[in-house]
Amino acid sequence: MATGIPAEKAAGAEVTDAPQPRSVRVVLLALMIAMLLAMLDNMIVNTAMPTIVGELGGLEHLSWVVTAYTLATAASTPIWGKLGDMYGRKGAFLTSIAIFLLGSALSGMAQDMSQLIGFRAIQGLGAGGLMVGVMAIIGDLIPPRERGKYQGMMAGVMALAMIGGPLVGGAITDHLGWRWTFYINIPLGAVALAMVTAVLHLPKKRARGRIDYLGTILLTVGITSIVLVTTWGGSQYAWGSAIIMELIALGVVSVVGFLFVETKAAEPILPLHIFRNRNFTLMSGIGFLTGFVMFGAMLFLPLYQQSVQGASATNSGLLLLPMLLSMMAVSLIAGRVTTSSGKYKIFPILGGALVVVGLFLLSTMDVTTTRFMSGVYMAVLGAGMGFLMQITMLVAQNSVEMKDMGVASSSTTLFRTLGSSFGVSIMGAIFTNRVGDEMVRRLGAGAGKLGSAQLDHASLLKLPAAVREAYQYAVSSGTHGTFLVGSIIAVAMFVAAFFVKEVPLRGAAPAPEGERDGAPVAPPVTESVS
């Protein structure tokens, strides 16, 4: 029995508040499993990294295990989005799951660090299509007006990955071995693969144009250069070093060339016309800034709590619980209100304000701050993130025609990914410099090297009391600097939100022709699921 949005409604009227059939919910369950795969992988693998290095060796190449995955994911994200638009969402999504599972299986069988790095790149290629596929398929199946109902589900998956990833990774590594941190993806992915294959039915598409190969190459080179600059700059290489300067030059030339090629291509990999829409451009910028401050915060909060507040590294995921629970609850409330009222502009404004306040409060933490107060500060930041995380994707998808749903989803995801790379790099450089300077100020020039190390609570207890106290003050100084800079940058997010135009969401009452900020009102979804 075919279910879904009746075909007779495709001709004109918008769909209004129709309950989603059970089969759509089954598809959503499969999509959430795939989303969990994409978000959980790095969390689990990071916990197992010391064990992996102990068995495979190659400590000098350790960073590439993460970098290869990140590069492949970022570079492939816009490509997956375009392939879904051109050849059909379902086929592209199933292919990305299959590649991710192949990379997971091969990574689990790696015999040396070089193999693991290569297999992680394969895994990353598949991962690039997982999140994009999830968001684009949801965009196809559920009108934006109804999509708010499911924001809590997506925020819950994110919270589960952030909290459970380190715990699951540690348990698997200790009891089953590090290879199972990769093998665990296979049964979960197989379930998602089977469910999507059996239940999701979307119209087949035939591309009229050729793939934009030159644009794809230029975009891949540009993204790779940007990610490498933010990954290597200030750590492996000095910011003024020749290789960083060369990567910056290569990135700039590639991006400029890409923009030129996209104006000429018949089927551009990233159609530039979608950026003429004010809401889409604003959501891309807000998404970039959201990734910048969020991942920076998630990197340094556990370090502060372990080094200064004496928390256990084993429970690093639980340290973020106040932020993640707040984010999940607020996302659920915002989604429900959006669905019932059709209004959403207030949420990015509130989100931007709370992020600024939350980061500023976190910048006030010092060696005397209690866990309760830091938890309150994290909850404020999480509430801001809850207003922003799903709304940015919702508004971006509502701002384009249905034929561009894939590239809209992939572009928004890509900007958030690039924002996280910049955030980790810039905030990391600020943190490292402040910690080193504070150690030198308190203990003399010889303490600068110690300041560059990240010491957990157990390691700190082995240090002399004076050194331990100096390091704790230094970490407090470092987190103060990073969160203060983050709060200043987040002001731009708050200001940008005021320029969002509240355009009726598809699925709400019919809107006048051409009202959607320059993007024609697309017909509602006609896909069905069986």
From TrEMBL:
Keywords: Cell membrane, Membrane, Transmembrane, Transmembrane helix, Transport
UniProt-annotated location(s): Cell membrane
One Pfam family it belongs to: MFS_1
GO molecular function, one term: transmembrane transporter activity
Record family assignment: Belongs to the major facilitator superfamily. TCR/Tet family.
Domain (Major facilitator superfamily (MFS) profile) ranges: 27-504
CDD domains in the record: MFS_Azr1_MDR_like
Major location category of this protein: membrane
Organism encoding this protein: Streptomyces hundungensis
GO CC terms of this entry: plasma membrane
Gene that encodes the chain: bmr3_4
Membrane topology listed for this record: Multi-pass membrane protein
Region described as Disordered: 509-530
Membrane-spanning ranges: 26-49, 61-80, 92-111, 117-138, 150-168, 180-201, 213-232, 238-261, 282-304, 316-334, 346-364, 376-396, 481-500
Protein name as catalogued: Multidrug resistance protein 3
